[in-house]
Amino acid sequence: MNLFPDSDLTLNDFMNGRVRLWQPRSGYRAGVDPVLLAASVPAASGHTVLELGCGAGAAILCLLARVSGLQGVGAELQPAYAELARRNAAENGASLEVIEADLNALPADLKQRQFDHVIANPPYYRAGAHSPATDKGRSVALGEETPLVDWFDVAAKRLAPRGYLHMIQKADRLPDMLAGCAGRLGSVEVLPLVARAGRATELVILRARKGGRAAFRLHSPLILHAGDRHEKDGESYTTQVSAVLRDGAAICGKFNQ
Predict the structure, then answer these.
(1) Where along the chain do its domains lie?
(2) How would you classify the pairing of strands 186-194 and 71-76?
């Protein structure tokens, strides 16, 4: 197993240091997307959470830090990232079990378990739709190898009745996401994420429920940055988004508006 040497890692703070994450200096690095994903989940103490493709653990560790009393499991294909997620869980004192496994070949014991929540941040680009990264870990994280529909199939099987899936993806993959829900998950809701007011939607967070029967809902967008353009150095996040990224605030209430 080729693990990351410490010299190839950086230690980065998320949510004002509530989560400290070791991640590769030149491989796939987590940004704000996993933090926003974690903030969208209406989890409560005592719930169980599975992240498919957990990488170094950014999303699920942010969720575990935001909501106390959760039991987390992360499944990760790449051995070096799985080991990094274990290290990050231990150093953050998080109740997170990390399983090294292919999405379509989960171990038998995991297939016997069901979860209140499944979260996922699958690769954003269809196979061949982006220039390949020179770093293999980054290439796997960004470029689709497992069809997106398989993520929905696995998520639906691992969800307990009435359990929720939350997934963040590029907006142009929304038709694929809706197709993935068909026949598997219902009560589908979509929260668009927009860089600035008046801009096109770049990302979406999808919520779907096992056994849900409510009508489809498209919510008003979450605006990430204040102002209509970037005018100076430094951050320009809106007050609501800054509270998510810095203070661990939730945005799950946006789905109720």
Answers:
(1) 6-256
(2) unpaired
Q: Looking at the domain covering 6-256, what would its CATH class be?
A: alpha beta
pLDDT 10s per residue in the chain (257 long)? 568 999 999 999 999 999 999 999 988 899 999 999 999 999 999 999 999 999 999 999 999 999 999 999 999 999 999 999 999 999 999 999 999 999 999 999 999 999 999 999 999 987 655 455 454 544 444 445 899 999 999 999 999 999 999 999 999 999 999 999 999 999 999 999 999 999 999 999 999 999 999 999 999 999 999 977 665 555 789 999 999 999 999 998 888 77
